[in-house]
Structures are given as C-alpha cells and as structure tokens.
Amino acid sequence: MIAALVQINTTVGDLAGNAARIVEQAARAAEAGAQLIVFPELALSGYPPEDLVLKRHFLRACEQQLEELAGKLPREALVLVGCPREIAGHPANTAVAFASGKIAGCYRKMALPNYGVFDEKRVFTAGEKPMIVQVNGMRLGIHICEDSWNSASPAATLLANTGLSALINLSASPYHRGKLSLREETLRAMAARIRAPLLYCNLVGGQDELVFDGASLVLDPARGPVARARSFEEDALFFSLPEPGESSRGAKSAQDVEWIIADLPAGRTKSVKPRIEPALDDLAEVYSALKLGVRDYVEKNGFAKVVVALSGGIDSALVATIAVDALGKDRVAGVTMPSPYSSGGTIADAGLLAKNFGIEFHTVPIRGLFETYLAELQPLWPDRAPDITEENLQARIRGNIIMALSNKFGWLVLTTGNKSELATGYCTLYGDMVGGFAVIKDVPKTLVFELARWRNARGGVVIPPSTIERPPSAELRPDQKDSDTLPPYDVLDAILERYIEQDLGVDEITAQGFDPAVVRKVIRMADGSEYKRRQGAPGIKITPKAFGRDRRMPITNRYGG
What we know:
The protein folds into two domains: 2-264, Nitrilase/N-carbamoyl-D-aminoacid amidohydrolase (4-Layer Sandwich); 283-475 and 528-534, HUPs (Rossmann fold), CATH 3.40.50.620. The chain has helices spanning 15-31, 56-72, 120-123, 154-157, 179-194, 246-249, 282-300, 314-327, 344-357, 367-377, 388-409, 419-424, 445-456, 465-469, 489-501, 506-510, 516-528, 530-534; strands at 2-7, 36-38, 78-87, 90-99, 102-108, 131-135, 138-144, 166-171, 198-202, 204-207, 210-213, 217-220, 224-228, 235-240, 258-262, 306-309, 332-336, 360-363, 412-415, 437-438. The chain is α/β, with parallel strands linked by helices and 561 residues long. The longest helix has 22 residues, at 388-409. The strands form four sheets. Strands 13-12-9-8-7-6-15 form a seven-stranded mixed beta sheet, covered by helices on one side. The protein has a six-stranded mixed beta sheet with strand order 5-4-3-2-1-14, covered by helices on one side.
C-alpha cells in the first residue's frame, strides 16, 4: 500500500478554504497511487483553534464541512483528516477516517498537552480508547500528536501487541530550535514500542506566534528515519508500506481498542522510493522559521505591505531583511527618523540597506518635534537635569510617526526589539515597542548577529558590514552604548537562557561561573519588565521557551530568583 503524508499550510477558521485544499491535495495524492492519505492534526479548522472550539456554531460548521468532504475525497483511498468535533456534548480533537465516500470512523486524541504553548485540556475532552483501522489486511493504529510522545502512555500500551502494520500520527507540532532531533528521538521510541513503522504527518505554516515546520517523517523502529519531507513548505511524502506479515495476522484484537473495517479497491502494486530531504543547518532553520512566520502573519491577516523603522542598527536591519525575503521588496517600506544624537554612520547605513534591497524609503528627522516637546514640557520640571525621560521622548516620537504611516497607508508595523532587550526592559513602551508584529522578539541579541552574518554569506552582502561591526547603541544620548546599561551580550544571553528557558535560580546560575552581582541584576531587570512584555506585540517563537504563552509570569511579583 502506498501512503501519502500531505503537510499543508492551513488558516485557522478558514473552513471552506482548508477543505478545498484538502480535497485538491487528496486528489493529487490518489492520482499518484496513494491508497492511504494522511493530513495533519486539525487540518480542517487550522491549529490551534483555541476558544473557537467552545463555540457550538463553529463545531456545527466543521461538521458540515466533514459531510461535504465525504463526497469529494477519493473513494479509492483511506483519507485521515484532523478536525474538531462535538462528541457526547463536548469538543474533541479528532482524526476522521474517510473511505468509499463516507465517514468510516473517528478517533479522539487521548493525550491532551497542557504545557508551554499548549492548552488543550481547557478546550478539549480526551478520548478513552485507541483506534485501529483494518484495511485490506493491514492494521493501522491512529495517534494524534501528543499521543506518540510518551511510549508508556495508554495510547501506546494498548496498541503495543496488536500487530500493527504501521502507526499513523496526525500532528501539529510547532517549531523551536532543536525540535527536529528531539521529535525524531521521541517518535523513534514510540515506533520501537509498537514494533512497527511510524508515519508522522506534521502541519506547516505560521499561525500568530507559532510556526509549524512540516518535516513529516517515516520512522523505522530499528533504523530511524527512512523518509522525510521538506521543512517549512508544503509537501507530500510518499512511502510504500510493507505487506502485512504473520505477526499482524496472528496478533490479538484488544477489547480496549476501537476497530474500524475499511475495504478499498486493490491498489497499484508498484512501490515508491523513499525520499529523505536533508535537515537544515541550525541558522538556516531559524531563518526559515522567521521568514515563514512573517509571510503567513502578513498574508493571513490581509496586510498588503509592512514598514520597518530603520535605525541603522543590527536589529532593524535583520527585521527588514527577513521581511524582504518573506514578502518581496515591493511590499516593504523603510523609514529612518534621525534625532540630534543619531550618528552619520547609522544614518548612512539605514539608507544603504534600503538601497541594497530597492525598497521604498523615507527620512523623517525628529529634531524639530523633539525640541517642541522639550519646550512645552520644560516648565513642568524646572531645574531638573536630562535623564531617561528625554531618551524615551525620542522613542515615542518615532513611535507616533511610524504608526501615523501605518494608519495612513494601511501598513503593518514590524517592531525590531530582540529577546535580550525585551527580557531586560531595555526598550520603550509606546516607543520602539510600538507595532503590530514583533519579528525577532524571541531571538537573543547574539543570535541576531549570527543570523545577520549568515544571511550576508548567502545571497550577497545586503546588511552593511559596518552595521554588524558597530557597537550596539540606542543613540538617545551622546556617546551612548548598550554596554552602559547591560552586561556584554554574550554574558547577558547566557544568563537569560538559564533563567528564562531553563528556569534556574540565582544560586544555580552563579554556580556555573557567573558573577553573582551580574546575575542578580539581570534577574531583577527581567522580573521588573514583565509589565512591558504584556503590552508588546505578538512575535515568532523560535526558542524552547518564548515570552507569553510559553512563560506565564505574574506582573506583581516579589520573588527574587
């Protein structure tokens, strides 16, 4: 039997559009000889649908689409589609099996994740039994994503001795750095547990802060990956399942497993050669995730164009580069807003970056506006020396200007703050934090530099080398450098990774050789900036623990480490 794992890019709530895509791709797979066609988890609704599934009219609309799919999907194939359904009065995350023009059965996800970005126990009711589809002498177990992440779970143990020909997993597994190797290791353990190949079909595309990387897999319990689809793009991975052997014919029929019988016409006898797409290297993987996240956020939310405030610094240069690579130069505008403290070098670099890409570019000096603000406000604080107030005024003037352009032309503002700045509060509310989408909010500053160098080494030098080499500065006062306020970024990012992503405390971090005073300062800054992060724009998750849904900390918090 030829199987096709079809990783598609869906949009949450676009039921008709997602259904049309499923029908189109299923027809192509069947024409290529597939008799088993698998789509990702919740492909019909998009993932994650969040509180949409608590709306009964949304579930009724999903059900209507399922009824229509039954008559449109290839009758000669078993097609598995992920969809939310109302079962016994409760929403369930299900895999619906279609065969011979009808719904043959429905499996409910048993293991509902409730950690990190996942909140499925809040909106879904878990299933109680695994499912096996018996088709043309083959026994196919069904899992949905988390079901396969614990080889000792009931979803696994109840299938372990049933003589499966293969285990099919419909998944929507979001990307973060290192996820591919973690995923393969975890799924290989499950394949070994059930002693059968595991066919894993993953979603692809961007949805708000999440990016799904595809990279669908076929894993052999002994050899590991024997087929892999492309990463970060739609793809169909074909694989020839071996004919059922004696082990499946003689295996038990477990009472705690739901069975479906589906008879299909005899399929084509030819086999397909397994295809293993190479895994991307680390920086290529991260850059691809950022690019896909930008493209899908802009496209799926109906924006025609984006705008980036180009300071001449490394962060805005990287954001603009990602935007051009994701959308094309005609859909990106840049604006530079020099202040009295902007250097000739940064002003020149902002213009050079815009010229290198050929994007629309505007210069709006803020000196006059800044001086007007100072003149109007000075009577309110006579005899007080300049401080951070005047610095933040400049950032907020810039925020007003770029949002005016957004309002006037309908452009989406891409903010340029990185994870290191957001972690420590080295950013201005209603200033440089203003915008609709925060492209690099989960990218530490050291990684920003790595990605800039990586991009310049591939596809021509587009980011001016002086932008990368210049010591970082907010340029809000004379001779200002980030190092005046923050530890060196290599030290800062190492501490932040341990505190934010690994959840280590002060003593544990200092035990690894860091200066205790620096550690306490960084943690104090991170904890004191939670209120800022709550008001920031959504952005793309690329680390194992991003701010927001991954890390839900109280704003009012007196625990110090």
